[in-house]
Design goal:
Helices cover 9% and strands 41% of the residues. It has eight helices and 30 strands. The strands form five sheets. The protein has a ten-stranded antiparallel sheet. Strands 9, 10, 11, 12, 13, 14, 23, 28 and 29 form a nine-stranded antiparallel sheet that branches. It has a four-stranded antiparallel sheet with strand order 1-2-3-4.
Protein backbone atom coordinates (compact mmCIF):
# COMPACT_ATOMS: atom_id res chain seq x y z
CA UNK A 1 0.00 0.00 0.00
CA UNK A 2 1.41 3.37 -1.02
CA UNK A 3 0.83 6.50 1.04
CA UNK A 4 0.74 10.21 0.41
CA UNK A 5 4.16 11.97 0.57
CA UNK A 6 2.90 14.25 3.36
CA UNK A 7 1.37 11.57 5.56
CA UNK A 8 2.69 12.10 9.13
CA UNK A 9 5.24 9.64 10.44
CA UNK A 10 3.64 6.56 11.98
CA UNK A 11 4.78 4.77 15.12
CA UNK A 12 6.15 1.96 12.96
CA UNK A 13 8.17 4.42 10.87
CA UNK A 14 9.62 6.10 13.96
CA UNK A 15 10.74 2.69 15.26
CA UNK A 16 12.19 1.82 11.84
CA UNK A 17 14.10 5.10 11.83
CA UNK A 18 15.69 4.18 15.15
CA UNK A 19 16.52 0.67 13.98
CA UNK A 20 18.23 1.92 10.82
CA UNK A 21 20.33 4.41 12.79
CA UNK A 22 21.21 1.70 15.30
CA UNK A 23 22.30 -0.71 12.57
CA UNK A 24 24.38 2.03 10.97
CA UNK A 25 26.31 2.50 14.21
CA UNK A 26 25.07 6.03 14.84
CA UNK A 27 23.53 5.35 18.24
CA UNK A 28 25.26 4.91 21.57
CA UNK A 29 23.83 4.40 25.03
CA UNK A 30 24.22 8.16 25.57
CA UNK A 31 22.48 9.18 22.30
CA UNK A 32 19.21 11.06 22.55
CA UNK A 33 16.70 12.21 19.92
CA UNK A 34 15.68 15.84 20.57
CA UNK A 35 13.79 15.87 17.27
CA UNK A 36 12.56 13.37 14.67
CA UNK A 37 10.58 14.76 11.73
CA UNK A 38 9.17 13.72 8.40
CA UNK A 39 11.57 14.84 5.70
CA UNK A 40 8.97 16.41 3.44
CA UNK A 41 9.67 16.11 -0.29
CA UNK A 42 10.08 19.30 -2.31
CA UNK A 43 6.85 21.00 -3.34
CA UNK A 44 7.33 20.10 -7.01
CA UNK A 45 7.59 16.39 -6.16
CA UNK A 46 4.42 16.50 -4.06
CA UNK A 47 2.47 18.37 -6.74
CA UNK A 48 3.53 15.82 -9.34
CA UNK A 49 2.56 12.89 -7.12
CA UNK A 50 -0.41 10.80 -8.20
CA UNK A 51 -2.26 8.21 -6.15
CA UNK A 52 -0.45 4.90 -6.39
CA UNK A 53 2.93 6.44 -7.20
CA UNK A 54 5.81 5.04 -5.12
CA UNK A 55 7.05 7.34 -2.34
CA UNK A 56 10.49 7.37 -0.75
CA UNK A 57 9.53 8.00 2.86
CA UNK A 58 12.28 9.75 4.83
CA UNK A 59 12.82 10.78 8.44
CA UNK A 60 15.20 13.45 9.67
CA UNK A 61 16.68 13.12 13.15
CA UNK A 62 18.67 15.47 15.32
CA UNK A 63 20.91 13.41 17.60
CA UNK A 64 22.84 14.51 20.69
CA UNK A 65 25.35 12.59 22.76
CA UNK A 66 24.50 13.64 26.32
CA UNK A 67 27.95 12.62 27.56
CA UNK A 68 30.02 14.61 25.07
CA UNK A 69 27.56 17.18 23.71
CA UNK A 70 28.25 16.02 20.16
CA UNK A 71 25.52 16.85 17.63
CA UNK A 72 24.55 15.08 14.41
CA UNK A 73 21.72 15.32 11.93
CA UNK A 74 20.82 12.19 9.99
CA UNK A 75 18.32 11.51 7.22
CA UNK A 76 17.05 7.95 6.86
CA UNK A 77 15.19 6.46 3.91
CA UNK A 78 12.47 4.45 5.59
CA UNK A 79 11.70 2.89 2.24
CA UNK A 80 15.17 1.48 1.53
CA UNK A 81 16.39 1.25 5.13
CA UNK A 82 19.50 3.32 4.43
CA UNK A 83 21.07 6.38 6.02
CA UNK A 84 20.90 8.95 3.24
CA UNK A 85 23.00 11.60 4.97
CA UNK A 86 24.87 12.20 8.20
CA UNK A 87 26.15 15.65 9.19
CA UNK A 88 28.10 16.77 12.24
CA UNK A 89 26.83 20.06 13.70
CA UNK A 90 28.99 22.70 15.40
CA UNK A 91 26.94 24.13 18.31
CA UNK A 92 29.13 27.23 18.46
CA UNK A 93 28.20 28.18 14.91
CA UNK A 94 24.69 26.75 14.61
CA UNK A 95 23.21 26.49 18.12
CA UNK A 96 21.67 23.64 20.08
CA UNK A 97 18.73 21.26 19.53
CA UNK A 98 15.51 21.84 21.49
CA UNK A 99 15.31 21.35 25.23
CA UNK A 100 14.49 17.73 26.12
CA UNK A 101 11.90 16.74 28.70
CA UNK A 102 14.31 14.69 30.81
CA UNK A 103 16.56 17.75 31.18
CA UNK A 104 13.98 19.42 33.44
CA UNK A 105 14.40 16.81 36.15
CA UNK A 106 18.16 16.73 35.57
CA UNK A 107 18.54 20.50 36.07
CA UNK A 108 16.52 20.45 39.29
CA UNK A 109 18.79 17.69 40.62
CA UNK A 110 21.96 19.58 39.63
CA UNK A 111 20.85 22.89 41.12
CA UNK A 112 19.60 21.38 44.38
CA UNK A 113 23.05 19.91 44.99
CA UNK A 114 25.03 23.12 44.32
CA UNK A 115 26.52 24.62 47.50
CA UNK A 116 26.40 28.25 46.34
CA UNK A 117 22.74 27.99 45.37
CA UNK A 118 21.91 26.14 48.61
CA UNK A 119 23.45 28.92 50.70
CA UNK A 120 21.42 31.52 48.80
CA UNK A 121 18.23 29.50 49.31
CA UNK A 122 18.93 29.02 53.02
CA UNK A 123 19.65 32.77 53.36
CA UNK A 124 16.12 33.35 52.08
CA UNK A 125 14.65 31.17 54.80
CA UNK A 126 14.13 27.92 52.88
CA UNK A 127 15.68 25.02 54.76
CA UNK A 128 13.83 22.20 53.00
CA UNK A 129 14.97 22.29 49.35
CA UNK A 130 12.42 19.62 48.44
CA UNK A 131 9.87 22.43 48.77
CA UNK A 132 11.75 24.55 46.24
CA UNK A 133 10.90 23.85 42.60
CA UNK A 134 13.63 24.65 40.13
CA UNK A 135 12.30 25.94 36.79
CA UNK A 136 14.77 25.30 33.91
CA UNK A 137 14.50 27.79 31.05
CA UNK A 138 16.24 28.19 27.70
CA UNK A 139 19.45 30.17 28.05
CA UNK A 140 19.55 32.39 24.96
CA UNK A 141 22.84 33.80 23.73
CA UNK A 142 24.58 36.96 24.94
CA UNK A 143 28.10 36.76 23.58
CA UNK A 144 29.63 35.36 26.80
CA UNK A 145 32.76 33.45 25.82
CA UNK A 146 32.49 30.98 28.71
CA UNK A 147 29.03 29.93 27.52
CA UNK A 148 29.92 29.43 23.86
CA UNK A 149 29.27 25.88 22.67
CA UNK A 150 27.89 24.70 26.00
CA UNK A 151 24.45 23.13 26.30
CA UNK A 152 22.91 25.34 28.96
CA UNK A 153 19.72 26.12 30.82
CA UNK A 154 19.10 28.93 33.30
CA UNK A 155 17.05 28.14 36.38
CA UNK A 156 14.69 30.28 38.45
CA UNK A 157 13.01 28.98 41.59
CA UNK A 158 9.56 28.84 43.17
CA UNK A 159 8.35 27.65 46.56
CA UNK A 160 5.95 24.71 46.60
CA UNK A 161 4.63 23.97 50.08
CA UNK A 162 2.89 20.74 49.09
CA UNK A 163 3.08 18.47 46.03
CA UNK A 164 -0.33 19.57 44.72
CA UNK A 165 0.23 23.32 45.17
CA UNK A 166 0.83 25.50 42.11
CA UNK A 167 4.25 27.09 42.75
CA UNK A 168 3.87 30.10 40.41
CA UNK A 169 2.40 32.20 43.25
CA UNK A 170 5.63 31.97 45.25
CA UNK A 171 8.67 33.10 43.19
CA UNK A 172 11.98 33.02 45.04
CA UNK A 173 13.26 36.05 43.21
CA UNK A 174 16.62 37.73 42.79
CA UNK A 175 18.37 34.42 42.25
CA UNK A 176 19.22 32.41 39.12
CA UNK A 177 21.52 29.46 38.39
CA UNK A 178 23.30 28.87 35.08
CA UNK A 179 23.57 25.13 34.37
CA UNK A 180 25.67 23.10 31.94
CA UNK A 181 23.58 19.97 31.34
CA UNK A 182 26.39 18.05 29.63
CA UNK A 183 28.93 18.58 32.41
CA UNK A 184 26.03 18.42 34.87
CA UNK A 185 27.15 21.31 37.02
CA UNK A 186 26.17 24.84 37.93
CA UNK A 187 28.43 27.31 36.13
CA UNK A 188 27.32 30.42 37.97
CA UNK A 189 24.81 31.59 40.56
CA UNK A 190 23.61 35.17 40.26
CA UNK A 191 22.35 36.37 43.66
CA UNK A 192 21.27 39.93 43.02
CA UNK A 193 18.66 40.79 45.61
CA UNK A 194 16.58 39.15 48.35
CA UNK A 195 12.80 39.41 48.06
CA UNK A 196 10.25 37.88 50.41
CA UNK A 197 8.44 35.08 48.62
CA UNK A 198 4.77 36.09 48.17
CA UNK A 199 2.62 34.00 50.49
CA UNK A 200 -0.90 34.21 49.04
CA UNK A 201 -2.21 31.06 47.34
CA UNK A 202 -2.38 31.01 43.56
CA UNK A 203 -4.36 27.78 43.28
CA UNK A 204 -7.28 28.69 41.04
CA UNK A 205 -9.29 25.72 42.30
CA UNK A 206 -8.89 26.82 45.93
CA UNK A 207 -12.38 27.53 47.26
CA UNK A 208 -10.97 30.32 49.42
CA UNK A 209 -10.16 32.11 46.17
CA UNK A 210 -13.09 31.04 44.02
CA UNK A 211 -15.86 31.03 46.56
CA UNK A 212 -18.75 28.64 45.87
CA UNK A 213 -19.05 27.70 42.21
CA UNK A 214 -21.93 29.42 40.44
CA UNK A 215 -25.01 27.36 39.61
CA UNK A 216 -26.63 29.75 37.13
CA UNK A 217 -25.11 28.42 33.90
CA UNK A 218 -27.60 26.21 32.07
CA UNK A 219 -26.37 23.47 29.70
CA UNK A 220 -25.65 24.23 26.05
CA UNK A 221 -25.93 21.26 23.75
CA UNK A 222 -24.68 21.29 20.17
CA UNK A 223 -25.98 18.44 18.07
CA UNK A 224 -25.89 17.43 14.42
CA UNK A 225 -28.51 14.69 14.18
CA UNK A 226 -27.47 13.80 10.63
CA UNK A 227 -23.77 13.90 11.45
CA UNK A 228 -21.11 16.42 10.39
CA UNK A 229 -20.77 17.81 6.86
CA UNK A 230 -17.11 16.87 6.49
CA UNK A 231 -15.61 13.66 5.11
CA UNK A 232 -12.29 12.24 6.26
CA UNK A 233 -10.09 9.79 4.37
CA UNK A 234 -6.99 9.15 6.48
CA UNK A 235 -5.56 12.66 6.86
CA UNK A 236 -7.40 14.15 3.90
CA UNK A 237 -10.47 16.26 4.70
CA UNK A 238 -13.27 17.46 2.45
CA UNK A 239 -15.74 20.01 3.79
CA UNK A 240 -18.13 21.86 1.54
CA UNK A 241 -15.86 23.24 -1.22
CA UNK A 242 -12.68 22.90 0.83
CA UNK A 243 -10.16 20.10 0.50
CA UNK A 244 -6.91 19.82 2.48
CA UNK A 245 -4.63 17.48 4.42
CA UNK A 246 -3.97 17.51 8.15
CA UNK A 247 -0.34 17.11 9.13
CA UNK A 248 1.44 17.19 12.45
CA UNK A 249 5.06 18.10 13.12
CA UNK A 250 6.81 17.70 16.51
CA UNK A 251 8.25 21.20 16.19
CA UNK A 252 5.39 23.18 14.61
CA UNK A 253 2.44 21.08 15.75
CA UNK A 254 -0.61 21.20 13.48
CA UNK A 255 0.13 21.76 9.79
CA UNK A 256 -2.45 22.26 7.03
CA UNK A 257 -1.33 20.99 3.63
CA UNK A 258 -2.65 21.69 0.14
CA UNK A 259 -5.69 23.83 0.91
CA UNK A 260 -7.86 24.10 -2.18
CA UNK A 261 -11.38 25.35 -2.96
CA UNK A 262 -13.71 23.77 -5.50
CA UNK A 263 -15.11 26.46 -7.79
CA UNK A 264 -17.62 24.88 -10.15
CA UNK A 265 -15.77 21.99 -11.76
CA UNK A 266 -12.31 23.35 -10.85
CA UNK A 267 -10.23 22.45 -7.81
CA UNK A 268 -8.35 25.71 -7.15
CA UNK A 269 -5.29 25.71 -4.86
CA UNK A 270 -4.94 28.51 -2.30
CA UNK A 271 -2.23 27.58 0.23
CA UNK A 272 0.26 24.75 -0.19
CA UNK A 273 1.37 24.63 3.46
CA UNK A 274 0.29 26.62 6.53
CA UNK A 275 1.85 26.38 9.98
CA UNK A 276 3.22 28.30 12.93
CA UNK A 277 6.91 28.25 12.09
CA UNK A 278 8.06 29.91 15.29
CA UNK A 279 6.98 31.95 18.27
CA UNK A 280 8.98 34.02 20.73
CA UNK A 281 8.03 35.21 24.21
CA UNK A 282 10.30 38.10 25.12
CA UNK A 283 10.31 39.67 28.57
CA UNK A 284 11.04 43.30 29.36
CA UNK A 285 12.74 43.09 32.78
CA UNK A 286 16.40 44.22 32.43
CA UNK A 287 17.48 43.09 35.94
CA UNK A 288 20.62 40.92 36.30
CA UNK A 289 18.44 37.93 37.18
CA UNK A 290 15.94 38.25 34.31
CA UNK A 291 17.47 40.12 31.36
CA UNK A 292 17.94 36.83 29.49
CA UNK A 293 14.27 35.79 29.59
CA UNK A 294 13.10 35.11 26.04
CA UNK A 295 11.77 31.82 24.77
CA UNK A 296 11.30 30.38 21.30
CA UNK A 297 8.54 27.90 22.04
CA UNK A 298 8.77 26.06 18.71
CA UNK A 299 12.53 25.99 18.10
CA UNK A 300 13.57 25.66 21.76
CA UNK A 301 10.75 23.57 23.24
CA UNK A 302 9.05 21.75 20.30
CA UNK A 303 5.41 22.86 20.30
CA UNK A 304 4.09 19.68 18.73
CA UNK A 305 5.61 17.42 21.40
CA UNK A 306 3.82 19.49 24.05
CA UNK A 307 0.35 19.09 22.52
CA UNK A 308 -2.51 18.33 24.91
CA UNK A 309 -4.66 15.24 24.62
CA UNK A 310 -8.02 16.95 24.13
CA UNK A 311 -11.21 16.08 26.01
CA UNK A 312 -14.72 16.19 24.57
CA UNK A 313 -16.92 18.80 26.23
CA UNK A 314 -13.92 20.65 27.69
CA UNK A 315 -11.63 21.57 24.81
CA UNK A 316 -14.04 20.85 21.96
CA UNK A 317 -17.83 20.97 21.84
CA UNK A 318 -20.16 19.43 19.28
CA UNK A 319 -19.79 16.65 16.70
CA UNK A 320 -16.04 16.13 16.97
CA UNK A 321 -13.51 14.28 14.85
CA UNK A 322 -10.17 13.79 16.58
CA UNK A 323 -6.78 13.01 15.06
CA UNK A 324 -4.02 11.34 17.04
CA UNK A 325 -0.43 12.51 16.62
CA UNK A 326 2.70 10.40 16.87
CA UNK A 327 5.98 11.93 18.01
CA UNK A 328 9.36 10.47 18.84
CA UNK A 329 10.48 10.40 22.44
CA UNK A 330 14.04 11.22 23.40
CA UNK A 331 15.05 7.55 23.17
CA UNK A 332 13.83 7.49 19.57
CA UNK A 333 10.73 5.40 20.27
CA UNK A 334 7.22 6.61 19.38
CA UNK A 335 4.66 8.19 21.67
CA UNK A 336 1.04 8.58 20.59
CA UNK A 337 -0.73 11.78 21.63
CA UNK A 338 -4.40 10.82 21.71
CA UNK A 339 -6.85 13.39 20.36
CA UNK A 340 -4.07 15.90 19.64
CA UNK A 341 -6.06 17.62 16.88
CA UNK A 342 -9.75 18.48 17.05
CA UNK A 343 -12.01 19.17 14.07
CA UNK A 344 -15.64 20.27 14.13
CA UNK A 345 -18.16 22.62 12.55
CA UNK A 346 -19.53 25.80 14.12
CA UNK A 347 -22.45 28.02 13.27
CA UNK A 348 -21.05 31.53 12.85
CA UNK A 349 -24.06 33.80 12.61
CA UNK A 350 -25.23 35.55 9.47
CA UNK A 351 -23.41 34.84 6.21
CA UNK A 352 -25.46 37.32 4.20
CA UNK A 353 -28.85 38.96 4.52
CA UNK A 354 -31.09 41.47 2.75
CA UNK A 355 -34.62 42.78 3.15
CA UNK A 356 -35.56 44.71 0.02
CA UNK A 357 -37.62 47.88 0.17
CA UNK A 358 -38.90 47.51 -3.39
CA UNK A 359 -39.80 43.83 -3.66
CA UNK A 360 -40.45 43.09 -0.01
CA UNK A 361 -38.29 39.98 -0.19
CA UNK A 362 -36.24 38.95 2.83
CA UNK A 363 -33.37 36.49 2.58
CA UNK A 364 -30.89 35.28 5.18
CA UNK A 365 -28.13 32.71 4.94
CA UNK A 366 -26.12 31.51 7.90
CA UNK A 367 -22.34 31.31 7.97
CA UNK A 368 -20.63 28.16 9.06
CA UNK A 369 -16.98 27.40 9.62
CA UNK A 370 -14.81 24.33 9.95
CA UNK A 371 -12.51 24.47 12.97
CA UNK A 372 -9.21 22.57 13.09
CA UNK A 373 -7.31 23.14 16.33
CA UNK A 374 -4.76 21.95 18.84
CA UNK A 375 -3.61 23.13 22.27
CA UNK A 376 -0.15 23.08 23.81
CA UNK A 377 1.13 23.64 27.34
CA UNK A 378 4.58 25.24 27.52
CA UNK A 379 5.50 25.48 31.17
CA UNK A 380 3.21 28.10 32.69
CA UNK A 381 1.43 29.18 29.49
CA UNK A 382 -1.12 27.36 27.33
CA UNK A 383 -1.75 28.18 23.66
CA UNK A 384 -4.58 27.14 21.39
CA UNK A 385 -4.18 27.39 17.63
CA UNK A 386 -7.49 27.48 15.73
CA UNK A 387 -7.60 27.38 11.95
CA UNK A 388 -11.00 28.39 10.56
CA UNK A 389 -12.27 27.69 7.05
CA UNK A 390 -15.44 29.54 5.99
CA UNK A 391 -18.09 28.89 3.35
CA UNK A 392 -17.10 32.04 1.42
CA UNK A 393 -13.46 30.98 0.97
CA UNK A 394 -12.06 32.90 3.94
CA UNK A 395 -9.21 31.38 5.98
CA UNK A 396 -8.50 32.60 9.48
CA UNK A 397 -6.07 31.75 12.25
CA UNK A 398 -6.93 32.58 15.84
CA UNK A 399 -4.36 31.99 18.56
CA UNK A 400 -5.61 31.80 22.14
CA UNK A 401 -3.19 32.45 25.00
CA UNK A 402 -4.16 31.38 28.50
CA UNK A 403 -2.58 29.60 31.46
CA UNK A 404 -0.56 31.18 34.26
CA UNK A 405 1.41 34.41 33.97
CA UNK A 406 5.12 33.86 34.62
CA UNK A 407 5.64 35.65 37.92
CA UNK A 408 8.29 37.58 39.80
CA UNK A 409 8.46 39.42 43.11
CA UNK A 410 7.04 42.94 43.13
CA UNK A 411 9.49 45.37 44.79
CA UNK A 412 8.30 47.75 47.50
CA UNK A 413 9.43 50.76 45.47
CA UNK A 414 7.37 49.69 42.46
CA UNK A 415 8.54 48.66 39.01
CA UNK A 416 8.71 50.00 35.47
CA UNK A 417 8.90 46.47 34.10
CA UNK A 418 5.98 44.68 35.77
CA UNK A 419 2.57 45.10 37.36
CA UNK A 420 1.44 43.91 40.79
CA UNK A 421 -1.01 40.99 40.54
CA UNK A 422 -1.34 40.04 44.22
CA UNK A 423 0.44 41.25 47.38
CA UNK A 424 4.15 41.20 46.59
CA UNK A 425 3.59 39.27 43.35
CA UNK A 426 4.36 40.73 39.92
CA UNK A 427 3.61 39.89 36.32
CA UNK A 428 6.53 41.06 34.14
CA UNK A 429 5.70 42.84 30.89
CA UNK A 430 6.23 40.62 27.88
CA UNK A 431 5.17 39.81 24.33
CA UNK A 432 3.90 36.65 22.62
CA UNK A 433 4.91 36.92 18.96
CA UNK A 434 4.00 34.23 16.44
CA UNK A 435 5.31 33.68 12.93
CA UNK A 436 2.91 32.01 10.53
CA UNK A 437 4.59 30.43 7.54
CA UNK A 438 2.18 30.56 4.60
CA UNK A 439 3.48 28.77 1.53
CA UNK A 440 1.07 30.35 -0.92
CA UNK A 441 -0.28 28.82 -4.09
CA UNK A 442 -3.10 31.08 -5.26
CA UNK A 443 -4.41 29.32 -8.38
CA UNK A 444 -0.90 28.04 -9.00
CA UNK A 445 2.70 28.81 -8.11
CA UNK A 446 3.09 32.05 -10.09
CA UNK A 447 2.26 34.54 -7.37
CA UNK A 448 3.16 38.09 -6.41
CA UNK A 449 2.31 40.44 -3.53
CA UNK A 450 0.69 43.86 -3.83
CA UNK A 451 0.62 46.19 -0.84
CA UNK A 452 -2.81 47.81 -0.87
CA UNK A 453 -3.87 50.68 1.38
CA UNK A 454 -6.42 53.47 1.61
CA UNK A 455 -5.28 56.87 0.35
CA UNK A 456 -6.70 60.32 1.03
CA UNK A 457 -7.16 62.66 -1.94
CA UNK A 458 -6.72 66.40 -1.34
CA UNK A 459 -9.21 68.99 -2.57
CA UNK A 460 -8.42 69.82 -6.17
CA UNK A 461 -10.07 70.45 -9.49
CA UNK A 462 -10.77 66.71 -9.67
CA UNK A 463 -12.01 66.61 -6.07
CA UNK A 464 -13.63 70.00 -5.48
CA UNK A 465 -15.66 68.91 -2.43
CA UNK A 466 -12.87 66.91 -0.77
CA UNK A 467 -14.95 63.77 -0.39
CA UNK A 468 -12.86 61.54 -2.66
CA UNK A 469 -10.54 58.82 -1.48
CA UNK A 470 -8.92 55.96 -3.32
CA UNK A 471 -6.42 53.19 -2.78
CA UNK A 472 -2.79 52.73 -3.69
CA UNK A 473 -1.37 49.47 -4.98
CA UNK A 474 2.38 48.80 -4.79
CA UNK A 475 3.93 45.62 -6.14
CA UNK A 476 6.68 44.13 -3.94
CA UNK A 477 9.22 43.04 -6.51
CA UNK A 478 12.10 41.52 -4.54
CA UNK A 479 12.88 40.11 -1.10
CA UNK A 480 14.86 43.14 0.07
CA UNK A 481 11.82 45.42 -0.13
CA UNK A 482 9.34 42.86 1.20
CA UNK A 483 10.03 43.29 4.91
CA UNK A 484 6.91 45.32 5.76
CA UNK A 485 4.97 46.60 8.75
CA UNK A 486 1.23 46.87 9.11
CA UNK A 487 -0.47 50.28 9.21
CA UNK A 488 -4.00 50.02 10.62
CA UNK A 489 -4.60 53.75 10.05
CA UNK A 490 -4.32 53.09 6.32
CA UNK A 491 -6.04 49.71 6.34
CA UNK A 492 -2.88 48.20 4.88
CA UNK A 493 -3.32 44.69 3.50
CA UNK A 494 -1.18 42.46 1.30
CA UNK A 495 -2.82 40.87 -1.74
CA UNK A 496 -1.29 37.64 -3.00
CA UNK A 497 -2.19 37.60 -6.68
CA UNK A 498 -1.63 35.15 -9.49
CA UNK A 499 0.31 36.89 -12.27
CA UNK A 500 -1.05 34.56 -14.97
CA UNK A 501 -4.75 34.19 -14.12
CA UNK A 502 -7.64 36.63 -14.02
CA UNK A 503 -11.33 36.45 -13.19
CA UNK A 504 -14.08 37.16 -15.74
CA UNK A 505 -13.58 40.91 -15.25
CA UNK A 506 -9.91 40.73 -16.13
CA UNK A 507 -8.79 41.25 -12.53
CA UNK A 508 -5.90 39.19 -11.16
CA UNK A 509 -7.21 36.47 -8.88
CA UNK A 510 -5.94 36.81 -5.34
CA UNK A 511 -6.16 36.41 -1.60
CA UNK A 512 -5.64 39.30 0.82
CA UNK A 513 -3.73 38.95 4.08
CA UNK A 514 -5.38 41.23 6.65
CA UNK A 515 -3.10 41.75 9.66
CA UNK A 516 -4.24 42.85 13.10
CA UNK A 517 -1.33 45.30 13.20
CA UNK A 518 -0.33 44.87 16.85
CA UNK A 519 3.25 45.80 17.94
CA UNK A 520 6.20 43.87 16.61
CA UNK A 521 9.25 43.10 18.78
CA UNK A 522 9.76 45.95 21.25
CA UNK A 523 13.34 45.11 22.27
CA UNK A 524 16.09 47.48 21.12
CA UNK A 525 17.25 46.70 17.56
CA UNK A 526 20.81 46.22 18.87
CA UNK A 527 19.76 43.65 21.48
CA UNK A 528 20.57 39.95 21.40
CA UNK A 529 16.91 39.00 21.15
CA UNK A 530 16.37 41.35 18.19
CA UNK A 531 19.22 39.58 16.41
CA UNK A 532 17.91 36.10 17.24
CA UNK A 533 14.24 36.93 16.62
CA UNK A 534 14.73 39.23 13.65
CA UNK A 535 11.65 37.68 12.05
CA UNK A 536 9.55 39.41 14.72
CA UNK A 537 10.75 42.91 13.78
CA UNK A 538 8.37 43.07 10.78
CA UNK A 539 4.76 42.05 10.28
CA UNK A 540 5.44 40.64 6.83
CA UNK A 541 8.29 39.04 4.96
CA UNK A 542 8.02 37.55 1.48
CA UNK A 543 10.64 35.13 0.20
CA UNK A 544 11.06 32.83 -2.78
CA UNK A 545 10.12 29.26 -1.97
CA UNK A 546 13.04 26.97 -1.16
CA UNK A 547 12.53 23.51 0.39
CA UNK A 548 15.22 24.05 3.04
CA UNK A 549 13.89 27.44 4.20
CA UNK A 550 11.40 26.29 6.82
CA UNK A 551 12.04 28.15 10.06
CA UNK A 552 11.77 31.89 10.79
CA UNK A 553 14.67 31.90 13.28
CA UNK A 554 16.74 29.18 11.65
CA UNK A 555 17.17 25.45 12.02
CA UNK A 556 18.69 25.21 15.52
CA UNK A 557 17.30 28.07 17.59
CA UNK A 558 18.34 27.03 21.09
CA UNK A 559 21.37 29.18 22.08
CA UNK A 560 21.75 30.37 18.50
CA UNK A 561 23.58 33.64 17.86
CA UNK A 562 21.03 34.95 15.41
CA UNK A 563 21.34 35.91 11.78
CA UNK A 564 19.71 32.69 10.56
CA UNK A 565 16.21 32.29 9.27
CA UNK A 566 14.18 34.89 7.40
CA UNK A 567 16.78 37.70 7.29
CA UNK A 568 19.28 35.27 5.79
CA UNK A 569 16.70 34.04 3.28
CA UNK A 570 15.79 37.59 2.28
CA UNK A 571 19.42 38.64 1.95
CA UNK A 572 19.56 36.74 -1.35
CA UNK A 573 17.18 39.44 -2.68
CA UNK A 574 15.51 37.10 -5.15
CA UNK A 575 12.62 38.20 -7.32
CA UNK A 576 9.19 37.56 -5.81
CA UNK A 577 7.13 38.89 -8.71
CA UNK A 578 5.41 36.03 -10.49
CA UNK A 579 7.31 33.41 -8.52
CA UNK A 580 6.66 30.57 -6.10
CA UNK A 581 6.56 32.55 -2.84
CA UNK A 582 6.22 32.15 0.91
CA UNK A 583 4.63 34.70 3.24
CA UNK A 584 5.89 34.95 6.82
CA UNK A 585 3.45 36.87 8.98
CA UNK A 586 4.24 38.10 12.49
CA UNK A 587 1.33 38.72 14.83
CA UNK A 588 0.90 38.60 18.56
CA UNK A 589 0.10 40.05 21.95
CA UNK A 590 1.88 42.67 24.02
CA UNK A 591 0.99 41.78 27.57
CA UNK A 592 0.96 44.13 30.55
CA UNK A 593 -0.52 41.67 33.05
CA UNK A 594 -3.61 42.75 35.01
CA UNK A 595 -4.86 41.59 38.39
CA UNK A 596 -7.68 39.96 36.38
CA UNK A 597 -5.02 37.73 34.76
CA UNK A 598 -4.27 36.14 38.13
CA UNK A 599 -4.27 33.35 39.25
CA UNK A 600 -5.13 32.13 35.74
CA UNK A 601 -5.41 34.23 32.62
CA UNK A 602 -8.67 34.36 30.64
CA UNK A 603 -8.06 33.65 26.97
CA UNK A 604 -6.49 36.50 25.01
CA UNK A 605 -6.60 36.23 21.23
CA UNK A 606 -4.64 37.33 18.20
CA UNK A 607 -4.36 36.19 14.61
CA UNK A 608 -4.98 37.13 10.99
CA UNK A 609 -7.36 36.60 8.08
CA UNK A 610 -6.83 35.49 4.48
CA UNK A 611 -9.76 36.67 2.36
CA UNK A 612 -10.43 36.06 -1.34
CA UNK A 613 -10.12 39.19 -3.50
CA UNK A 614 -11.26 38.73 -7.13
CA UNK A 615 -10.51 35.05 -6.67
CA UNK A 616 -14.14 34.32 -7.56
CA UNK A 617 -16.30 35.84 -10.28
CA UNK A 618 -19.09 36.53 -7.78
CA UNK A 619 -20.19 35.62 -4.26
CA UNK A 620 -19.37 31.89 -3.99
CA UNK A 621 -22.11 31.28 -1.39
CA UNK A 622 -25.19 32.00 -3.51
CA UNK A 623 -25.93 28.27 -3.43
CA UNK A 624 -26.04 28.07 0.38
CA UNK A 625 -29.63 27.06 1.21
CA UNK A 626 -31.74 28.97 3.72
CA UNK A 627 -32.07 27.55 7.20
CA UNK A 628 -35.70 27.05 8.10
CA UNK A 629 -37.17 27.64 11.53
CA UNK A 630 -40.18 25.70 12.78
CA UNK A 631 -42.34 28.45 11.30
CA UNK A 632 -40.77 27.89 7.86
CA UNK A 633 -39.23 31.37 7.82
CA UNK A 634 -35.56 32.12 7.21
CA UNK A 635 -33.71 32.24 10.50
CA UNK A 636 -32.12 35.52 11.48
CA UNK A 637 -29.31 36.10 13.95
Amino acid sequence: MTMHPLEPLSAEEILRNRDVLQQAGLLRESTRFPLVQLEEPAKSAVLEHREGDPVDRRARSVLIDVKTGGLTTAVVSLTSGEVVSETAVDPVEHGQPPVMLDEYELVEKIVRSDETWLRAIHDRGFDDVTKVRVCPLSAGWFGVAEESGRRMLRALSFAQNSPDELPWAHPIDGLVAYVDVIEQRVLEVVDDRKFPAPAESGDYTDEQLTGPLRDTLRPIEITQPEGPSFEVDGHEVRWENWRFRIGFDPREGLVLHQLSFRDGDRERPVVYRASIGEMVVNYGDPSPVRFWQNYFDAGEYSLGKLANELVLGCDCLGEIRYFDAVVAQEDGTPRTLRNAVCMHEEDFGVLWKHTDVFTGSAETRRQRRLVVSFFVSVGNYDYGFYWYLYLDGTIQLETKATGIVFTSAYPEEGSSWSNELAPGLAGPYHQHLFSARLDMMVDGTRNAVDEVEAQRVPISADNPHGNAFTRSVTRLSNEAEAGREADPAKGRAWHVVNTERTNRLGQPVGYALHPQGTPVLLADPQSSIAERAAFATKHLWVTRYAPDERYPAGELVNQSRGGAGIPAFAAANRSIDGEDIVLWHTFGLTHFPRPEDWPIMPVDVCGFTLKPVAFFDRNPTLDVPPTRSTGSHCCES
